[in-house]
Amino acid sequence: MSPRTKQLPRHVAIIMDGNGRWAQMRHLPRTLGHREGVLRVKEIVQAASEIGIEVVTLFAFSTENWSRPALEVSTLMRLLQVYLGREISALSRRNIKVRFIGRRDQLPRSVIRTIERAEEKTKGNTGLTLVLAVNYGSRQEILDGVRAMMSDCARGALAPGEVTEKTFGSYLYTAGLPDPDLLIRTSGEQRISNFMLWQLSYAELYFPEKYWPDFRKQDFLEAIEVYGKRCRRFGGIGKKA
Ligand code: IPE
Ligand code: IPE
Ligand code: MG
Q1: Which of 67, 99, 164, 217 could pair covalently with 47 via S-S, beta carbons 3.0-4.6 A apart?
Q2: pTM strictly above 0.85
């Protein structure tokens, strides 16, 4: 294995931010920014799959995004459905497995059905795992996990002393996935916005200035390159120079 390949992140998480500002800069409605953003989703997912990344998580809609104008929320839901409807065969052909994280119950029925179909159709695939975070909030995820764990304790299936980091991780929506090695947030904002608070503990953070609709394959490859040069120490003193 070349040193370059050794440094490839297993899991890249992306907060796709800046669609609205991209559109506003062009005097277009914000929703057109989201439409353009979908094209970048296709491009970046393909790039990640080509270079052999195991997992890509895309933050598509947060639990806080419901506070946006109704038209914007419904456009985002529609775009998600159209993207999945159109792309599911192509994703499946490329051996990509699709998984969703987030609270499903508050989503429109039609979106839930599309999500379930996508997961079902791609469940046997062994290439890139594409995780779409929809109606996702990390504090909610942690609370849901704590509730499930407490109810297992109450019925005697789990003892409090048995709860390790690994046990807790298995109660989160991301159960079974490796933690993200690299977090990319586009648009220059440098915050986490309630995204994967537990899982990002030791992720490398990368904040490109470009808005998501301007973030191309080349920019993604550059992020991977930058990650390759980072020195991760995990509290230790790192490799000898
Ligand atoms: C990210 O772009 C897309 C979603 C949050 C769904 P924004 O819509 O947040 O764009 P800005 O941050 O307003 O520019
Ligand atoms: C985070 O972006 C959510 C997604 C990208 C889906 P926001 O644009 O909603 O985050 P804030 O409000 O700027 O923190
Ligand atoms: Mg934003």
Answers
A1: 217
A2: yes
Share of the chain above pLDDT 70, in %: 97
Distance between CA atoms of residues 33 and 22, nearest Å: 6
Six-digit token string for 108? 């429109």
Count of domains in the chain? 1
pLDDT, tens digit, for every residue of 193-208?
999 999 999 999 999 9
Range of the domain at 85: 11-228
The one catalytic residue among 17, 19, 135, 181:
17
6 in a structural domain: no
Report whether residue 61 contacts ligand 2, using a CB cutoff of 6 Å.
Answer: yes
Distance CA 186, CA 112 (A): 27
What residue owns the CA closest to ligand 1's atom 13? 20
Query: Residue 174 is part of a domain; what is its CATH number?
Result: 3.40.1180.10
Residue 33: inside a domain: yes
- Closest ligand relative to 64 C-alpha: 2
Q: Is the confidence at residue 213, as pLDDT, over 70? A: yes
- Residue 54 in any domain: the answer is yes
In a domain, 40, yes or no: yes
Q: Which atom of ligand 1 is nearest to the CA of 24?
A: 14
- Whether 87 is in the pocket of ligand 1, judged by its Cβ within 6 Å, is no
